[in-house]
Amino acid sequence: MKVLVLPGDGIGPEVARPAAAVLVAAATRGHEFVLTEAPIGGAGIAAAGDPLPEATAHLAEQSDAILFGAAGIAGDTLLPAARRPGAGLLRLRKRLGLFANYRPAVLYPELIDASSLKPEIVRGLDLMILRELNGDAYFGEPRGVSVDAGGERIGVNTMRYSESEIRRIAHAGFRLARKRTRKLCSVDKANVLEVMKLWREVVTEVGREYPDVALTHLFVDAAAMHLLRRPTDFDVIVTGNMFGDILSDEAAMLTGSIGMLPSASLGEGRRGLYEPVHGSAPDIAGRDIANPLGAILSSAMLLRLSADDEAGATRIEAAVREVLARGLRTADIHTPGTTLVGTAAMGAAVLAAL
Ligand code: NAD
Ligand code: IPM
Ligand code: MN
To answer: What is the pLDDT of residue 134?
Structure first.
């Protein structure tokens, strides 16, 4: 299996390299893994003047799976949009047609005291946010900043979804719900935005093909509130690109830390891009304190979804549970009575547990 490792920026390399080591150590299907590294994000700009160098994009197209760290450098919001490190990731998702982004938020019982919520509210949390990844205000045209007749600057982005884009992510949501508890909650802003009214209509239409799945709808503001009020009522949440971005960071804190959350981005085939939900965290980069478990759990998703290696995926998840049960914690999930370890030591502990 050809796996392209894109460490990226900040804590990206610190978490992606242990995740790659865990991937190879855990696999059970006898695949020969060929790992290649390439630059993306700020590292892409440094290497080739582009956040997605053509050589990196080409390697990604030739790969069976991609393991990604993070993209982003301090102060990068001042750069023009196309030159920002994150634009490399956005272009890669689009170019590979990876439209379905699976972001599970699972509370490990050992981390219940690290959650921002009271134990009785968050106990048993196991939900999946399915975020559409190729549309919305992220890619809609027109976009940009221009100067109007009065000399004032006007910023424009376009929230845009076609019926077929909504339909394919809705089908992915219903299929996923069937594999879980047959509950799907679609999140939109249909009370205000026409594009989201279409979203709700199309999801409802697709739902008629899945009469065994209980479909509900929430407006995004209420969904944000209910995620904190009754998070364990949710199972699968399907939503657009921007709302999914925001809600998944919110859901992260229910699990104890954004450093715990993995993700998988898939298109029509088996090739996927696997990455932790967090960013490059410039505030803690280079200090060996970042939590590598979100990246490591992304390797588990890679084995499950791109390598058809359920046993290997389960081994990684069991190893993560074991190190947590032994009391090892990085700073972001550290609570009294547990043992504080750094990024490298946490990665090594997972390898040892394997
Ligand atoms: P961030 O996720 O990088 O960090 C948010 C907070 O969470 C910070 O306090 C950080 O220290 C902490 N944190 C994040 N990951 C952690 C980990 N593994 N262990 C411990 N603590 C962790 O978000 P931000 O600060 O808003 O963005 C920083 C840069 O990353 C920006 O350039 C942004 O565009 C980029 N970004 C990239 C991705 C990605 O590559 N997928 C995702 C989000 C943000
Ligand atoms: C994420 C990130 C990216 C996004 C950024 C870095 C482009 O926040 O993967 O959640 O907004 O999709
Ligand atoms: Mn995000």
So the answer is: 98
